[in-house]
What we know:
- By secondary structure, the protein is mostly helical.
- It has helices at about 35-50, 55-60, 65-75, 80-90, 95-105, 110-120, 130, 135-145, 150-180, 185, 190-200, 210-225, 230-235, 240-275, 280-310; strands at about 25, 30.
- Strands 1-2 form a two-stranded antiparallel ribbon.
- About 30% of the residues are buried.
Amino acid sequence: MAEQTAPADIGPHPGGRGTSGKAVGPGGPEPAKSDAAVVRDALGVGVAVGLSGFAFGVTAAGSGLTVLQTCALSLLVFTGASQFALVGALAAGGNPLTAAAGAFFLGVRNAFYGLRLSQLLALPRAVRPFAAQWVIDETTAVSLAQPTRRAARIGFTVTGLTLYLLWNLTTLLGALGAEAIGDTDAWGLDAAGPAVFLALLAPMLRTTTERAVAAFAVVLGLGLLPVLPAGVPVLVAALAAPAVLYAEGRRARARATAHEIRDTARDGAQGAQGAHVAPGDSRNDAHARDDDSQSNTHHDDAHHDTSKEDR
């Protein structure tokens, strides 16, 4: 894909590595991951996900697309979830423009992946337009998991190549198979696309916020399905992310305000306690001042008597 660069020549790694490109751990630089191990991991991801292209081929054929149209989507779009969203909306009778809009918004995330990978991989300009076709969830995950830029490049290339070839091959097989068996609804294959999509999405929901976004999106999509045209609920469900993030921000600000009020009250109580002086302490201070005055008086008298004796 691109000429490999020795780790010593790549400069600082964007992920917080040392200048040699090696990951730095608490005990010093971590040993570089072997190329064979990177290839093995990348092949595992590429094969596992690439086989799900069969489900897309079946779903696309069941939604009314021809074999040529189905294969063109995998060859040119190659975004997995966006492809499923598109054919799912078409299968539900949605408007093609609405279905395309939903797929587009779902695929926008790849643009943000590209921003991160452009720094990590640092590919030559001539290669970047071709590499952009392979910027998807799986290649991004494999690349970011590598300790050096060389390993990231290998992981990106092997994952992208394996997944692209297998996805397109299994898409063709799925489309041909669906065309041969006829009505996919009768075989229950219309549920293959959503099932694969959920299987790909579920492992990515690691935090409470991500799960809340997914749950709210499901509620919006299913709740609006009976009242809105096909394909529109998918677009509306995209509002789940900003809505949940807004709620999380309000809760965070409320917690910060509560902590600030509590800290201010505690500091005020400590200041008042420090400023309060007990009556006994006042008397002791007064006695101390009286003793100092008497001591100074005795000292002056003694000095006066000494002066008289000298005279």
